[in-house]
Amino acid sequence: MTATIIDGKAVAAALRARVAQQVAALPYRPGLAVVLVGDDPASAVYVRNKDRAAAAAGIAAQTIRLPAATAEAELLALVARLNADAGVDGILVQMPLPKQIRSTAVIDAIDPAKDVDGLNPVNAGRLQSGRPGLVPCTPAGVMKLLAEAGVALTGTRALVLGRSVLVGRPMAALLTAADATVTVAHSRTRDLPAECRRAEVLVAAAGRAQMVRGDWIAPGAVVIDVGINRLPDGRLVGDVAYAEALPIAHAITPVPGGVGPMTIACLLENTVIAAGRRRGSGQ
Ligand code: NAP
Question: How far lies 73's CA from each of 108, 121, 201, 235, 275, in Å?
């Protein structure tokens, strides 16, 4: 038997089309401001893709580029201006930021109502408290992939490999809210392979190329690979040894083409949600 491949590209395309339909029916154009500081090539690609996808969905997207030497105070002043701008519904500051800028100071400064990345502590706290807020895009995308794949989460043993603020922690909160029994594993976890083998749903977000081997996976498990790692030969791989996992898992996301495309689609959805809440027309 070979695992069902969960097609993130197709699910993301359908979500982007739904968002475009929603936007077309609105009496206003939701606005998204994406801020890029410096010239990190990977960040530049991410920002361009976000800008294009937003524009294609009918969102009024603007990218603001600042030089690498920008002072923290300058970036905070820009965030304050965007917070006050009635036409801006979503603000995303692309990470990582240059060394002289504290990312926590910037994240804390974003109006929680416009925090489409869901990283502001107000939104993180709302998620942990089971209250409505803006949910980080990558874990939100994983939940949609699990739903599309027909995975029933209630009572399921789930393991999240990674505990970052961006992925692992919100992922664990979402799975808990969906009534899974969640273990969070990290670099200090004892006997990680054994922990992984207990999981019926395994979400790998460690940022370590192919670290999850085939024999770490329980037969019939659902495997979601969030990792994006570049090998020395230039290939892009996930955190899971995909070829080894294929004959063991029940379903699996590929890299690329799995979780990655969902992140941008969920960013667009978050922008529309934020706009609806701010402008008082529900979703
Ligand atoms: P991160 O901030 O570096 O966090 C990695 C987490 O994995 C940490 O909690 C770390 O544990 C844990 N970890 C690292 N090495 C480990 C090991 N050998 N054994 C066990 N745990 C280990 O990374 P992130 O931002 O969460 O991103 C994780 C991966 O997802 C990266 O590959 C990133 O590129 C990818 N990503 C993809 C998308 C997408 O759109 N698909 C979006 C965001 C991120 P400690 O806490 O103990 O250090």
Answer: 13, 20, 43, 39, 27
Burial class (CB in 10 A: 0-12, 13-18, 19+), 37: buried
Give tens-digit pLDDT for 89-137.
999 999 999 999 999 999 999 999 999 999 999 999 999 999 999 999 9
Tens of pLDDT, residue by residue over 46-62, are 999 999 999 999 999 99
> Quick one: pLDDT at residue 281?
59
Closest by Cα among 198, 258, 243, 249 to 223: 249
| Interval between CA 125 and ligand 1 midpoint (Å) | 21
Question: Ligand 1: distance of its center to the CA of 237 in Å?
Answer: 14
Please provide the average confidence, as pLDDT, over all residues in the chain: 97
Asked if 117 is an active-site residue, the reply is: yes
> Which of 137, 184, 226, 229 to mutate for ligand 1's pocket (most ligand atoms within 8 Å of CB)?
226
- Give 206 Cα–ligand 1 centroid separation in angstroms: 3
